[in-house]
Amino acid sequence: MIRLIYPILVSFLSTLLCSCASPWQTISTGTSLQVDHERVFLISPDTTFSCGFYPSGNDTNAFYFSVWFTHASDRAVVWTANPHFLVNGHRSRISLNKEGNLVLTDVDGSTTWESNTSWGKHTTAALLDSGNLVIKTSTDKIIWQSFDSPTHTLLPSQHLTRNNRLVSQSDYHVLYFDNDNVLRLLYNGPDITSIYWPSPDYNAIQNGRTRFNSTKVAVLDHEGNFLSSDGFKMIASDLGLGIQRRITIDYDGNFRMYSLNASNGNWTITGAAIQQMCYVHGLCGRNGICEYSLHLRCTCPPGYKMADPENWNKGCKPTFSIECGQPHEDFTFVKIPHGDFYGFDLTSNESISFKECMQICMKSCMCMSFTYKNGEGLCYTKNLLFNGQVYPYFPGDSYFKLPKISLTPKDDGISCRPKESKVMLVFANAYIKNPDNISWSYFYIFAAILGAVELLFIMTGWYVLFKAHNIPKSMEEGYKMITSQFRRFTYHELVEATGKFKEEVGKGGNGIVYRGILGDKKVVAVKKLTDVRKGEEEFWAEVTLIGKINHMNLVRMYGFCSEGHHRLLVYEFVENESLDKYLFYDSNTERLLSWSQRFQIALGAARGLAYLHHECLEWIVHCDVKPENILLTRDFQAKIADFGLSKLSKRDSSNFNFTYMRGTTGYMAPEWVLNLPIDAKVDVYSYGVVLLEIVTGSRVSSGVTVGEEVMDLMQISSGVSIGEEEMDLMQISSGTTVGREEMGLVQFVQAVKQMLTSGANLGIVDARLKGHFNHEQATTMLKIAVSCLDERSKRPTMDQITKDLMVYNDEDFHPAYF
Prior knowledge:
Layout lengths: L1 H19 L5 E3 L2 E4 L5 E4 L5 E7 L6 E8 L7 E4 L6 E2 L4 E4 L5 E4 L5 E4 L9 E4 L5 E4 L5 E4 L7 E2 L4 E3 L4 E2 L5 E5 L5 E6 L4 E5 L19 E4 L4 E4 L4 E3 L9 E5 L5 E6 L6 E6 L16 E4 L3 E4 L4 E3 L9 E3 L12 E7 L1 E3 L3 E5 L4 H10 L5 E5 L4 E5 L5 E3 L6 E7 L18 E6 L2 E6 L4 H30 L3 H13 L1 E2 L2 H7 L6 E5 L2 E7 L5 E6 L3 H15 L10 E7 L2 E7 L7 H4 L11 H21 L3 E3 L8 E3 L5 E3 L6 E3 L20 H4 L7 H16 L12 H10 L5 H11 L10 H14 L16 H14 L9 H9 L12
Helix pairs in contact: 3-4, 4-6, 8-10, 8-15, 10-14, 13-14
């Protein structure tokens, strides 16, 4: 009898102790805990983690069974047994039953979750210092662990594999390994499913990933490195040991790395996968438009209103209806500048005019809007509008198809923000704060009056400047052009936009570039000329030049500032920095450009220069082509920047007159040093050097400044014999003594020629690519580079170079890329 009672008594006492005493580090079979005032079930030996009943924030009588950080101020949850099911705050229970199965039961005794282990009564459960909740045998063999079934958080040493995934608390965003072995973020919403990271517009190699791995594993180590088998890497900004960290896919669909401040228990974001939150799909719902500068903001387009004032995920709904058969004249289009809706194209067309694109949408009763890219003539009509966003560097605009009658809002108006009487609308190139009862026609009248006043002000200022102060004619022409195309900023505006010139993003010989945010939330690059005396000429050169060009591979300028001695230029912000940051890095594998990216950058730069040389109303020679002046967009498309050293020439002129040498040593053509006439071929020479550096991933341009091969190169390129005077001139211009020891560019070019002639293996291609490149493209690029460095009369034009590269342009997947 005593033998029968004893085990029952032990089980009862263990249950009592677990319920009433301090949390346990280990519990054995037959132990249970009833939810009561949020009691803790287990605690890790070092007390970092706790496990037990965690209250729902919405209901004080509902609980999850979870693991959380004990000392974090927000008690951040890292794992939950069943995130989709809450248990009652009365008599719900967690138990390690006699079969060794961890079971969560609700108030009515129903099982809401279990570990599905059946090892027997000799099992124990424990919470490890790593945050891993485990069930072990008597020999300490782990037969179940929470690390194998993560919810929204990954802890150091916990593996994300092909068999599990992270899901945000909204249940709409998933981090997982796809069938091609690439780590991806998926939006799995109520209406659509779509991948949004890495960019779905590109294949794996273009996104800097590799598909050729069979492990499918990602892990966060204890130093703060998050590493994935497909090549993705995130490094904590506070890299080092001794810091509690976690990777969490947040409610908004981004996954971030967090570090815990041990002194105050607060979390700091030390890494994030997505920098521009509007790239996350589903944030603003169907028809909604996402904008992001300092913070994320959702809006509804004209003719639409918020579907649920409390939930942006449900998007916007139209306040009108479109029926097939309605006359075309009943409709109009409203422009959303730099707007786009990703996916769900009804049709796509290339090389067509804007009018043709509009007509395609007008004639289709299914078409709700279209996106048009001017520079490329690309037209995409849309029948479903998801994943809308506006960002200033998108090279196109979105146009909404609306019945003309809908442009006069009714009493229920467009509501883009809950509980606000006034709303913000994107309409005809501007944001307009609009009370619901005001007719749209008033805005046109107001805009016309404002425009007239502004024009009068500008023309008056122009007259005063030029007639009263005798401004030089070159500057006068610049002002004439600006008055019709650019905004003139005050110095105070740009001081505020840049936070008193706080964030420096680039530096050159003629100025420093800062990141700024204008009043309309547009992100810009503000270039502040450092040498005012010399900068005056460069300032007007850039203002006059950039206002006359418009090309997808050239940086756009939005405006300028000229006050006292202050000279500033305001450009579009190109977020991925300059090419040199990716070609000449040391060990940061995140900056390794894939071969496909390199080829597209080379092609984009060639297109931009070809436009300057051949398509502008006046010929434009850049004069300083180098990797530092080739900026890269989010999609790693090339944009040529810095026209401060440019020179214009009428089409009937064969060369330019310069008062001093221009450019960067190492990229300057020989004719600069030899004082020969300058033409567009100086850019071709510089492009050739850049092309070699794109292929090799190293600074081959350094050979121009040292070694006796500089002299040889000048003789080969120009056919001119160089004597002591020319050598002195070279030393003066470069600031470097020309020696006779190091191998220079000429020897390298000769080696490339020999390699191409003999058909030898392309061993000079960047070794970091590990042979993953297209052989035909690499051969073509090297041949072009060599021809660019030839005698000036034999160099090709940028137009011909673009055509030669286009023959091998293949943006689709091709095995040779790997």
